[in-house]
Amino acid sequence: MKNILLRFIIIGNFSFLFFLSCSDKNHTVINPDYEGNFEFQTLTVDNIVSGRSYITSPKLGNHEYLYSGSKNNYNCEFTLIDLTSYYALNAYPDIIASPDTVDSMMFKMYLSEESLIQIPEILLTYLHSENDSIFHEDETIFLDDNGNEFDPNGFPEKIPLGAFQLSQEDTNSAMNSIEIIIKDTDNIREFMFYLDDTSKCLLLSQTETSDFIKIYSSESNYQPEFYIYYTVTDSTDSSYVSSFSLPVLQDVTLINPPEFLILPQDSLYIGGSIFQSILEFSLEPFSVLPDQFLIKEDSYLYLETPFDEAVSINILAYTLSDSIDSSEHFITVEEGYSVDRSIYMPTWFQDGKLKIGIQSYLQYALTQEIEHFGINLQGSINNDPFSILSVVKPDSSYSTISIEYVSNQ
Amino acid sequence: MYPINKNILIIFALVGFAYTQSKMNSYGMGNPGLYKDVASSGLSSSGLFPGYGKNFSLMNPSTWSSSKYTLLSTTFKGITHLLNYENIQNQSSNIDWLFFIVPIKQKYAFGIGLFPYADHNVQFGKTDIMTPDSSLSNQTVDFSGGLSSLRFAFGFPLSSFGLGGLGFDLLFGSSRVHKSTEINEEIYIHDQRKLFSGIVSQLYFTSNPVLIQSKEITFYFNLGFTIRDFSAELQSYQPFIDINQNGVHDISLFDFPGIDNSPDPTKKRFQEFYNPLELNFAINIKYASGISLIYDGGLWKNNSSISDELFEFGDGLSKKIYLSQGLIKYAENFPKTIIDKFHWRAGYSISQMDFQSNSNKVDKFDLSVGIGLPFGKYGNQIDFAYTFSKIKSEHFINEDVKTVKIGLTIGDIWFVKRRNR
Predict the structure, then answer these.
(1) pLDDT for residue B38
(2) For residue B139, which residues of chain A lie inside 8 Å, CB to CB?
(3) What number of C-beta contacts closer than 8 Å exist between A and B?
(4) Residues of chain A contacting residue B190, judged by C-beta atoms under 8 Å apart
(5) Is the Cβ–Cβ distance between A126 and A191 less than 8 Å?
(6) Chain B residues with CB inside 8 Å of A409's CB?
(7) Mean pLDDT, chain A, as a whole number?
């Protein structure tokens, strides 16, 4: 037994120390003569892209500005603003029930710094509708479902409240603003009459087309303000003026885009929040790629564009989620086409070309991980809604898809 | 068996199988047949000659029936590779050999062994390569894995001619190819896996000793040939950008394209790329009691052509010849001095390797020494061998290899009726 134990200790310890002393090292053989790693290959396909443009409803619900006037052939005649009286009905039921105690009402809107000090005539009208609201800021289009333009005269009840004036210089604020003070007791009474409704729709309209001003919307830090001033008489028969406000619920400018017919027909249009374009191409030229491949980031779709440095526009490219039936160059759609935003396609302007990074799109389309319907080009919501970028129509002009890839060979 | 044996086996099992790299590993199926037991390594012998003990070789089944004991043999190897052209040194340590031999009534024998057959471990790199768009690129290709051999072998008498042996090597394994290219801090990776299988048969013959000029001479012979064609399946995986730079193909957002958005690997089968034939012989000349001089030689040949598509470099070994000479002094059964307690071994070997697609030849020179210490009553033995090898070709290959092997063989008596106490 002693022998067995002794052997265990000696041989066991010897082996253990030996294994501990073994430290494996594996350095790379750096040798310039070695060949065998993969190499990137290039595939360029010209003139397979076709495109079309369409107008869609602007998504300006989260936009920081409202507009009045005309710019770049866009016409902004009407702006709609919803006020809510829900809180006032609960907090000031006596005032709401007694319009005679109301002395005046004031509506104030702040102007962006670049807006002109000379403002055009902007009229304010109250539109009454039995519906809670006549619009939704995310879905509003200038043309309705039947293609009819917005008509303010179509409302049975409307109260003209006057025209905006440039506010008196306020030493407490560096902001310019326009305001309208309503003192006409008939107008106040009529306006207050409908305060039972929780939502009040105001219309800003401008008939002059030469001036264009930019007003902060309710999405900004300088929201429009609507105040109701009323007289309070206390138990000692002394009186004083107090006020409450009606907050803005939603607001939107109805943008009337330029007619397609006045735009050159050999271009695609992207920009603002109205013009979008679709690019379509066949995947057949890419069938030469091997069974397994990896498209490198430096893979682009190039389109010719009259590059104008003055146009500061951020183009977004997304994957179309469905096929497009129409083959017209210009089409009008209400909701736009659905897109898959999970596929990232960065865009740049370079050397007079719009350059779209299509690494992810092509990789997944060619491996059938996504269905290939085409690419949607649209402007970022942060763009000026009136900006517009034209791209030379690729059907009959220049377009190139150039990819770098590595195969599994 | 002693309880110590189990503990040592556990320690062996805990040690990882990691192989050092050699440029030879990058050519086709690598350099097969380098794996030997410790005793044969100490003699620079192919293993035909009984280097483990008198009349017994762990690698030659025709000699197994001479053992009185059932044996379990293991070998641990430490190896250092110095690549002279690049001046880098790689080290590894691993279990090299595992064999279980059961002699039956000293007439027959049966054995099962597991040992590496070919090693594909090598990592190549290129740094600061200028790409067409003037970016700098770093590339590495990491080959790993290899083939193992599961050997079933039998020893049997051949009437008055001598002893015979028959073995079947079930060769199997896989090697991985991990290609990585870094450009502009983006890492592109492509992985491949190659699965190999095939069966090689081994015939062994050991002659009865003959007396020539009053010296006892024994001849050994071995023929190895393919009985089931080698086949390979090349699995090629989706190349990807390793965004999180962990070297592994992860799901989307972590890698592009994610493994969840990648197609299954493509598979392609290959055959007739490897058909080894080997012929070995050895002569044992007994000079004095317990001292033998051995001459060993052999030829190995691949009778097929290496596939360009299966192997990156489109080349491989086509022929290998070697000659070796060794001297052994066996331990005495009843030692009078401490020297008599050990088997003393020394030898050298020269070999030359030819390639299929280039005319460069690779020369290999081995110089080795070894000792073995029998202990206990049942054929236990500890062996030690040191080998220095020089591998050199006119271009590309210049390596110094130092190998240390330690073997432990544990014996027991089976198939013997024991008297009940």
Answers:
(1) 93
(2) 37
(3) 147
(4) 38, 294, 406, 408
(5) yes
(6) 236
(7) 81
pLDDT at residue B275 greater than cutoff 90: yes
Judged by CB atoms closer than 8 Å, whether chains meet at B21 and A29 is answered as yes
B37 token code pair:
């037991």
pTM: 0.74
What's the gap in Å between the CA of A28 and the closest CA on chain B? 5
- CATH number of domain containing B251: 2.40.160
* Structural domain total, chain B: 1
Q: Do A28 and B23 touch (CB under 8 A)?
A: no
Helix (H) or strand (E) holding A365: helix A359-366
* Average pLDDT over every residue of B347-357: 93
Task: For residue A329, give both structure tokens.
Answer: 């160059």
pLDDT (mean) for B84-95? 85
CATH number for A348: 2.60.120
What are the tens digits of pLDDT across the range B218-244? Answer: 999 999 999 988 999 999 999 999 999
pLDDT value at residue A94: 86
Which residues from B are below 8 Å from A25, CB to CB?
89-92
Q: Contact B86/A19, CB-based, under 8 Å?
A: no
What ipTM score was computed for the predicted complex, to two decimals?
A: 0.70
* Average confidence (pLDDT) over B259-265: 89
**Residues A212 and A319 reside in one and the same domain:** no
Helix (H) or strand (E) holding A80: strand A74-84
Chain B: closest CA distance from residue A244 (Å): 51
Looking at per-residue pLDDT, the higher value among B370 and A176 belongs to B370
Angstrom distances, CA of residue A282 to CA of A196, A277, A279, A342, A401: 59, 17, 11, 22, 11
Which of A256, A272, A287 finishes a domain? A256
Task: Give residues with Cβ within 8 angstroms of B95, minimum separation 6.
Answer: B12, B13, B15, B17, B74, B75, B76, B77
pLDDT at A85 over 70: yes
Chain B within 8 Å of A8 (Cβ-Cβ)?
A: yes
Res A35 pLDDT > 70: no
A36, B313: Cβ pair inside 8 Å? yes
Chain B hits for A34, Cβ within 8 Å: 124-126, 141
Strand-pairing partners, residue A331, are: A54
What does the radius of gyration of chain B's CA atoms come to, in whole angstroms? 24
Q: If pLDDT is split at 50, 70 and 90, which confidence band does B15 have? A: very low
Under an 8 A CB cutoff, do B239 and A297 touch? no
Residues 252-311 of A with CB under 8 A from B: 291-294, 296-298
The burial of A215, by beta-carbon neighbours within 10 Å (0-12 exposed, 13-18 middle, 19 or more buried), is given as buried
Q: Range of A205's domain?
A: 74-256
B8: enclosing H helix or E strand: helix B3-14
- What's CA A188's distance to the chain center, in Å? 37
Q: Looking at the domain assignment, is residue A283 inside a domain?
A: yes
> pLDDT tens digits for B134-146?
677 788 888 889 9
Strands A330-332 and A50-55: parallel
Task: Give residue-wise pLDDT tens across range B173-183.
Answer: 999 999 988 88
Whether B4 sits inside 8 A of A364 (CB atoms) is no
Chain A residue numbers with beta carbons less than 8 Å from the beta carbon of B238 are 292, 294, 408
pLDDT digits (tens, 9 = 90+) for B376-420: 888 899 999 999 999 998 877 899 999 999 999 999 887 666 666
Is A361 among the domain residues? Answer: yes
Integer Cα distance of B35 and B58 in angstroms = 12
Q: Please tell me if residue A1 touches chain B, with a CB cutoff of 8 Å.
A: no
Do A318 and A386 belong together in one domain?
A: yes
The span from the CA of A393 to the CA of B303, in Å, is 62
As a whole-number percent, the residues of chain A with pLDDT over 70 amount to: 82
Contact B124 A36 (CB under 8 A): yes
